[in-house]
Amino acid sequence: MPIALSPPFRPRNGLTKFTNCRLLRGDRLVEEDLWVSSLSGKVVNSQAAFFDDLVLPDQTIDLGGRIVSPGLIDVQLNGAFGFNFSTLLDDMSQYGKKLKEVQKLLVQTGVTSYNPTITSQRPELYQKALPFLGPSGHLQEAEDGAESLGAHCEGPFLSPTKNGVHNVDVLIEAQTYEDLEACYGKHNLTPRAEGEQIPIKYITAAPERGQMMKLIPELKAKGIIYSVGHSEATYEEASEAVGQGATMITHLFNAMRPLHHRNPGIFGVLGIAESLPRPYFGIIADGIHLHPTTIKIAFNSHPDGFILVTDAMHLVGLPDGAYPWTNGDTTCNIVKVGSKLLLENSDTIAGSSITLLECVNNFLQWTDTGIPHALKAVTATPAAMLGLQGVKGSLDAGADADLVIFSEAKTPGKPSTLVLDEVWKFGTRVHRVVHES
């Protein structure tokens, strides 16, 4: 006959129940319990009486009113902790090793998923590096750290007059889809088997260059997101790109034609009166790339498309100083001073060295829009841009149990800031911060 087991000796079921917490639900923080499973790696239905009445979790964690958010998603990360993704190594097996080291450190910043970004480079680098940067998928384990959602190719099909720090000598035009294959590698644009994901998730390109405008529908048909960026596109050209299927704008305002009262340029496609779907857009909230008021204008223009990104370089997590950087065909130094990166002996901004949580807290301080809106810009909105609604960026049942637990730091007369306490990946705690009392 069956043996009744007392709770200490019952089989473990992998369930964790979070209680006395505030969950990010859309534009609100809701007082509600949350159940996750380390076996399935998913959020489970906490409202079902089955779990409340018949099943005991392996652990119940009282969070004392703290905030539970989906894991943060950075859709534009060039590198971190000393490793630049746009690096061609003599032994490319070491590329994968260095990437894993970055991912284990990156998750400790609250970023559980990201799009590794390769800047404008020669074809050889794309073709050799991209296979390492594709979606991690079912191969990802909790202890692996942050998860790649697919590579972002920022270039080399950019405008040479809006190149920013991209090496103008490696910029090219595409006349046919075969030109894209010749650059990125056909194997990185075509699934080898039915249902297999390709390494590239999205590309940034100037739609006015070559025949790129006509190639947007073909990219879209293959499941590749097209983002407008590093571009001289007029309002009319940007509108045409959106009409062709562009759904994203890379670091809005930076490396593009500025807003003009007679031609609003790329920014104009965010207007609420437009007949076309309004695209998503990235914002670098490091206090250097954009003025805080500019960020408020962008947010108010289209809150549901607003995505905070770091555009961070490999100097994230490193001390201040000058560091070598291979940029296309040249090697130069980047000088890091706090979160500010500049090309040596130049005033040219070279990405950032800020973390995504720092961007969130900057946005909170500058706009006072509230914690739910700030967190949505690094969870649900980037997930929607990537077509991963209900899988990433969500606490709904069935979503991946990637979580960040925050304390709320309050200063009289100022907006709250978020303090990272814990990070969970697939229902397993992977990082805990011990704060000094």
TrEMBL record:
Matching SUPFAM superfamilies: Composite domain of metallo-dependent hydrolases, Metallo-dependent hydrolases
List the Pfam families hit by this protein, alphabetically: Amidohydro_1 (PF01979)
**Record field: catalytic activity:** N-acetyl-D-glucosamine 6-phosphate + H2O = D-glucosamine 6-phosphate + acetate
| Swiss-Prot/TrEMBL keywords | Carbohydrate metabolism, Hydrolase, Metal-binding
Q: Does the keyword Metal-binding apply?
A: yes
* Amidohydrolase-related domain boundaries: 67-408
Known EC number: 3.5.1.25
Q: How is the cofactor bound?
A: Binds 1 divalent metal cation per subunit.
Q: Which residues bind Zn(2+)?
A: E154, H230, H251
Fetch the InterPro entries from UniProt. Amidohydro-rel (IPR006680), GlcNAc_6-P_deAcase (IPR003764), Metal-dep_hydrolase_composite (IPR011059), Metal_Hydrolase (IPR032466)
Molecular-function GO term, any one = metal ion binding
Q: Which residues bind substrate?
A: V165, N254, A255, R262, H289, I349, A350, G351
Going by the entry's taxonomy, the superkingdom of the source organism is recorded as Eukaryota
As cofactor, the record names: a divalent metal cation
Q: What biological process terms from GO does the record include?
A: N-acetylglucosamine catabolic process
The active site consists of D311 (proton donor/acceptor)
Q: Which family does it belong to?
A: Belongs to the metallo-dependent hydrolases superfamily. NagA family.
| Matches recorded under NCBIfam families | nagA
Protein name listed in UniProt: N-acetylglucosamine-6-phosphate deacetylase
Q: From which organism does this entry originate?
A: Hypocrea virens (strain Gv29-8 / FGSC 10586)
